[in-house]
Amino acid sequence: MLEKVADQARRAAEAASGRGGTPAVDISGVAEGVTHGHARQGAKTVFDLEGLTVSYAAKPAVKDVSMGIHENEITALIGPSGCGKSTLIRCLNRMNDLIPSAAVEGHCFYHGQDLYAGEVDPVEVRKRIGMVFQKPNPFPKSIFDNVAFGPRVLGFPDVKERVERALRSAALWDEVKDRMDSNAYGMSGGQQQRLCIARCIAVDPDVILMDEPCSALDPISTGRIEDLMLELKEQYSIVIVTHNMQQAARVSNRTAFLIVELDAEEDNRWGQLVEYDETDKIFTNPSDSRTEDYVTGKVG
Amino acid sequence: MSPRFPRLTSERTSLATAGAHAAVATSLKKRPGSDTVKGQIFFALLLFAVAIAMLALAAVILQNAIKGSSAFGTHLITDGPSTIFPEKAGFRPAIIGSLYLMAGVILFVVPIGVGAAVYLEEYADGTRWWNKLIELNIQNLAAVPSIIYGILGLAFIVRGPLDLGFVALAGALTLSLLVLPTVIIAAREAIRAVPPSIREGSLALGATQWQTIRRQVLPASVPGIATGVILAISRALGEAAPLLLVGAATFVTFDPQPLSGGYSALPTQIFNYALRPQDEFKVVAAAGVVLMLIVLLMMNSFAIWLRNRYEQQW
Q: Most buried residue, A136, A151, B108, B159, by CB count within 10 Å?
């Protein structure tokens, strides 16, 4: 059932109009240069979060998040440490299931289907919604076997073609085509992360989730991966968690800003969504003063 | 030196600087305080402990090598035992018996041990009381004296429900029970060493838990598991006590069969020779000890080499 919905969505995306233009915008005090902050008008939503609340062992980590993530766009989640960005993104592909004490309330709709409904198989969810982690985690196998792992376990017949296509899409093919059988651990950090992205793409997901993909990398690798993201969003929808708001300004179409809330006795802390809008607006003319304080660097 | 200031001041300055340097140099130099001495005594005690361990091993090897040197020869391996001619006494049936036992142990211990370890690490909810009980049980079983396993084997494998009789298979099963806890613990350590990021990476691609275990976790933990299995087998090779109870009849002259007839093993055969009154047989026993030590050292070295060569640096 999920397959049909995803296929419909993909066909609709192919028929949708292109993205808007991006004039140079001066984001005072934050970043200079071009942003990709214009969201496509009328773009369909891939995810619809309604009142999503995640708790670990009955303590809330993020409360009451409602937002829509749009197709073929890059959506950034920014905010201070501990505001639940990673927890939120892990909800989108049911990775929080791996944590026994995690409990999810509210709804997370993927192309209209509630991901946390009883009959939904998390394995099927993860086939369509891939994830790239903060620290590159290539498997202790060869480069070819790393990228081929997904297609093999999912039973795709054309493994070799998929591997080449994925490595080309991840801008890694030219660097590794002569050493496909060498161990993946021999690559640099930036290459390993691109390998993880290639591995994710090889199974043709619908959405790619990225949890701080560049935080462990040097600036040059970071730049390459950001360029890669901008290319990839033509085909996939990308959600990225980043603690680097300039990165969000550089690459994303829409940005969601979360903060940490404390309760009266300062015992519990949880994340709350403050503002979610087009990136341009968040960085130049935010509606909430807390957003403005964060993006201008008044608070950390 | 600045020309603007009078010579007197610069002399004072240089004296003060020299004094400061000397004070720092003195304070940084090693002083024989009580803590330093304690550290040296501690270090000496550690060296002493290592020396005792090495000396004990060397003593065993040397004593047996010297005593048994006259009996060395290929006949040790090719000839059967003899009560009459110590010059012709060999260990052949015992060696074959030990080989059958080791093969049996590997056959039983690897699937059961690895399976139990996979269950405990990947599927079991560690907070449930019954899983905690299983863990406690396994740790304790690893420390139970081997003779108890002999009694267990006699009661349930040789007689009792399995009723196999005094055959090599019974001995193999008994030894498997003996080393199973060790293998489970070693396999668990190997599986636990695989970082969660590898499992997460696999699951995030849409693999099932079983696919992740079979294609990522187990292949990555094979070196650790193999090392544990080899060490367990080398322990099983040297156990005499349980085998005495499950029928490693200490005097077997024919080549044993796995499922029928009597059998013996290296340790029990050595035991038998050592008990004989004649001195010549004691020489044969010493030669057997050296033979067994060589095999054990080879196996353990192989296990260590395997671990060093294939160990994954995460």
A: A136
Model confidence band, residue B149 (pLDDT cutoffs 50, 70, 90): very high
User: Which residues of chain A lie closer than 8 angstroms to B200, CB-CB?
Assistant: 95, 98, 133, 137
Q: Which of A124, A126, A135 sits opposite B205 (nearest CB)?
A: A126
- Within 10 A of B276 (CB to CB), how many other CB atoms are there? 15
Are the beta carbons of A200 and B204 separated by less than 8 Å?
yes
Please report which residue ranges of chain A form alpha helices under DSSP H: 2-15, 85-91, 122-128, 143-154, 159-169, 173-176, 189-201, 219-232, 245-251, 279-284, 289-295
**Are B202 and A139 an interchain contact pair (Cβ–Cβ within 8 Å)?**
yes
| Residue B128 contacts A where some CB pair is shorter than 8 Å | no
Per-residue model confidence as pLDDT tens digits over B45-96: 999 999 999 999 899 889 888 888 877 777 777 777 777 777 777 888 888 8
Residue entry with tokens 């489970």: B184
Residue ranges covered by each domain of chain B? 60-310
Cα distance between residue A190 and residue B141, in whole Å: 48
- What is the DSSP secondary structure assignment for residue A183, as one 8-state letter? B
Say if the Cβ atoms of A133 and B215 lie within 8 Å. no
Model pTM score: 0.79
* B204·A131 Cβ contact <8 A: yes
ipTM: 0.84
Q: Could you read off the pLDDT of A91-105 as tens digits, one per residue?
A: 999 999 998 889 999
The domain B60-310 is placed in CATH, from the list 1.10.3720.10, 3.40.50.150, 3.40.309.10, 2.40.160.60, at 1.10.3720.10
Q: Is B203 on the interface with A (CB under 8 A)?
A: yes
Chain B residues touching residue A135 (CB < 8 angstroms): 197
Q: Is B160 on the interface with A (CB under 8 A)?
A: no
Q: What span, in angstroms and rounded, lies between the C-alpha atoms of B107 and B258?
A: 13
A289 SS3 class:
helix
Q: Which two tokens stand for residue A121?
A: 């198989």
**Cross-strand bridge partners of residue A258:** A273
Q: Are B246 and B174 in contact (CB under 8 A)?
A: yes
What is the distance between the alpha carbons of residues A6 and A202, in angstroms, rounded to a whole number? 17
Chain B CB contacts of A137 below 8 Å: 195, 197-198, 200-201
Fill in the DSSP letter of residue B74: T
* B134: three-class secondary structure by DSSP: helix
